[in-house]
Amino acid sequence: MSVTAEPDTVGDRPGAPGVPPLGRQGPATFLALIGIVWFAVCVDVIARWVTSGEEFRPAPRIGPDVMADWRLIALRIFEGISLAVMAAFIWFCVVKPLRETGRLGLDGRFVIGGIICFVADAFLNVQQYLFAWNSANVNRGVWVRFLPFHNPEAPSRYAESLIWGPPMYIYFCAGVAIVACHEAARVRRRWPSITKFRLFVAIFIFEFMFDFIVENVVIRTTHAYAFAKTYAPLTLWAGEVHQFPIYESILVAFVGCVFTWARMEAFETSPGRAAGQSPIEVGVERWRPSLQPHVRNFAVLGFCMVTLVFVYHLPFNWLGLIGTSHADLPSYLLPG
Questions:
Q1: N or C: which end of the chain has fewer CB within 10 A?
Q2: Kind and range of the H or E element at 326?
């Protein structure tokens, strides 16, 4: 009995004879495109905010509640410490490397990316007033009204901090990554057989505790901010002015782990990646040398934005919008 061979239909499959393999592009170009788009959005949002007149002014002080003097002093100390921390990061990660080598490293790009991505902080209240701001913060109102996806019925007259806000996008991202990589190197020297999974479990715990302690100390001592509406099953001290959603620290820890991973990988040797190159920058070599620094800068900015939006802002907003735990806020933490 003869067997009739079926037509060869595998020739169209990737990797089949006659079909050349697809080259590995790397994410740099795609992330750079995201970075360029986000930078353009930031320029547009800030320009419209600054020239709005109505929105670009300090948020109104809401009464009748008045902050205790010691809380106001604590708030000013927190603002001063935050400025000093941001200045230190800018000096050691941006200015000093540029003066010594004329080049910006990954840490410097993370710092600049964090400052630019601070514009996304207003996404916290783009739909509802989920994150409460103290009207005593040094502020010029907020730019939330000009962000994409803003709900016209959501409040837009509250005091987004211009002093302690941006540093949080530095030390919870670049800062924890620098410290975690330093400590991870010590752990790996001490226990050479430790797996990457166990290492990142330890890093996650460290970053979770760091956020939990810092945020709760700030909230309880300064009333600089509060969580106005949260998902009750995952909220500690629900209904109190200092109620704290445990998912805040979980999400911040995940963000820190992503930044730590990118920085740690830059120090690892890997096929298809140049020494000292992070996974974010793979593919930048496809561009001509004069454009590579710009592609690298925007790629890191795109990475920062994608990480913050998808790992932090979207989950935070979703859990807040379905939340039922409303904090008992003093009037100075309410929007105008």
A1: N
A2: strand 325-326
